[in-house]
């Protein structure tokens, strides 16, 4: 249980009355026109409708001890934070400047104040990074710094999931993940993650090629678009014609899309699903119970480390992340890193370990994309590492399928990304290997 002492009053930010001549159009004294010209959107939190609040959540088995969850803000950090219980636009801009400089802030009155500070932080970031000439570098640095700033914005949450600042979204995952806590303090980006993840869990993900919705648990990677790589896999499986007697491994299962594709196409096939993320393992096990699917074993494993007793396999399907992990991102208790990007040694390890997990003549299918190459994040596909295993794995073919522009650009968050989506050739790939 976390208890919060009232922070020292010298840290409290009180609203002040402004002179009548400055009651409208308040701007920063250092950049008098920046706020008036630049009006970025505040980060949006998904609000729950009354119908959603009354909706019964999908079935969940008892939580496993290994489940990852956001770490609440430590009491010492809360005590040292500015206590924000209101403020004018100018004062919230000043708070944003302090947060940018490294100060933390805890919001107690209105959720809107936290969103306004995040909006002001966008302005501050634009001003401080104006000297960077490379657009891609500036974009990455901006995202990194704003993510760090969001970790210094706190809000109190009750054991029922209600935010203390008025107007904030209810967090349905809090009573599930923190059932013994009276009240907690969370960082702004964790609040957003808990809220958005709960909406997807509650409402589910609908794929046209699956008979039921999937309800991914918190911290589990999933994507609704593109889905061309899943359709490419289905078409390839129909041509491959695997036997029901085959033992298939869904390596890096995530929310289980490939596992459920396999079971919907081959109901008697034996499938093992594995993932490094404990939340993904828990999520797929819960989904299997909701669907009533038998004959699937789910294992937590870093690639093949804990799969020796399960193999060898007739077919391994791997849908890895498509983007390399930035050097500054490190796995920790406070950040979700499972599934979003791949570490530098992933594919070297994959091709070194995969042959031993396959039967002679067994198949390895890797679903990938040219996304990172097109964006200039890598000079060549990391799957070129397969050449190191050429004596054990034969590359038979690479199937490709274009991703329609409309499906790409709709999910980009910036104008620069939307422009890129229309100009670049984005395609998904299926690399087919056979064990010699």
From TrEMBL:
Q: Spell out the Basic residues composition-biased ranges.
A: 34-44
Q: Name one GO molecular function term.
A: nucleic acid binding
Q: Where is this region: Disordered?
A: 1-62
Biological process, per Gene Ontology: methylation
Its recorded name reads PrmC protein
User: Methyltransferase small domain: which residues?
Assistant: 237-377
Q: PROSITE patterns attached here?
A: N6_MTASE
Report biased composition (Polar residues) as residue ranges: 21-31
Q: By its UniProt entry, which Pfam families does this protein fall under?
A: MTS
**Source organism superkingdom:** Eukaryota
The family database entries (InterPro entries) matched by this protein are listed as:
DNA_methylase_N6_adenine_CS (IPR002052), N5-glutamine_MTase (IPR050320), SAM-dependent_MTases_sf (IPR029063), Small_mtfrase_dom (IPR007848)
- UniProt lineage: Eukaryota, Sar, Alveolata, Dinophyceae, Suessiales
Provenance organism = Symbiodinium pilosum (Dinoflagellate)
């Amino acid at each position: 249980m976390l208890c919060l002492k009232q922070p020292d009053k010298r840290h409290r930010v009180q609203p002040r009355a402004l002179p009548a001549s400055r009651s409208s159009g308040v701007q920063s004294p250092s950049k008098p026109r920046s706020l008036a010209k630049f009006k970025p959107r505040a980060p949006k939190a998904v609000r729950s409708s009354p119908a959603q609040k009354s909706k019964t959540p999908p079935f969940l088995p008892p939580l496993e001890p290994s489940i990852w969850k956001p770490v609440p803000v430590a009491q010492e950090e809360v005590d040292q934070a500015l206590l924000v219980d209101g403020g004018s636009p100018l004062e919230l801009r000043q708070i944003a400047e302090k947060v940018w400089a490294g100060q933390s802030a805890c919001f107690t009155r209105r959720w809107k104040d936290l969103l306004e500070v995040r909006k002001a932080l966008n302005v501050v970031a634009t001003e401080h990074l104006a000297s960077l000439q490379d657009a891609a570098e500036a974009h990455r640095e901006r995202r990194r710094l704003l993510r760090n700033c969001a970790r210094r914005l706190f809000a109190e949450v009750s054991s029922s999931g209600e935010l203390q600042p008025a107007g904030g979204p209810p967090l349905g995952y809090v009573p599930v993940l923190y059932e013994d806590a009276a009240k907690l303090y969370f960082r702004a980006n964790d609040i957003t993650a808990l809220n958005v993840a709960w909406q997807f869990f509650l409402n589910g993900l609908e794929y046209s090629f699956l008979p039921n919705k999937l309800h991914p648990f918190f911290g589990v990677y999933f994507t609704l678009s593109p889905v061309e790589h899943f359709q490419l896999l289905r078409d390839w499986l129909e041509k491959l014609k695997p036997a029901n007697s085959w033992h298939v491994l869904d390596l890096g299962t995530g929310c289980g899309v490939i596992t459920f594709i396999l079971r919907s196409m081959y109901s008697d096939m034996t499938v093992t699903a594995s993932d490094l993320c404990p939340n993904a393992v828990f999520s797929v096990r819960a989904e299997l119970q909701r669907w009533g699917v038998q004959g699937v074993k789910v294992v937590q494993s870093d690639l093949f480390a804990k799969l020796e007793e399960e193999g060898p396999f007739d077919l391994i399907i791997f849908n890895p992340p498509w983007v390399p992990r930035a050097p500054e991102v490190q796995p920790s208790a406070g950040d979700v890193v499972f599934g979003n990007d791949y570490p530098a040694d992933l594919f070297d390890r994959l091709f070194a370990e995969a042959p031993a997990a396959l039967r002679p003549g067994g198949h390895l299918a890797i679903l990938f994309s040219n996304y990172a190459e097109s964006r200039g994040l890598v000079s060549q596909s990391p799957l070129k590492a397969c050449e190191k295993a050429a004596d054990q794995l034969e590359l038979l073919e690479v199937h490709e399928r274009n991703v329609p522009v409309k499906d790409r650009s709709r999910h980009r968050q910036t104008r620069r990304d939307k422009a890129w989506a229309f100009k670049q050739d984005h395609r998904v790939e299926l690399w087919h290997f056979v064990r010699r």
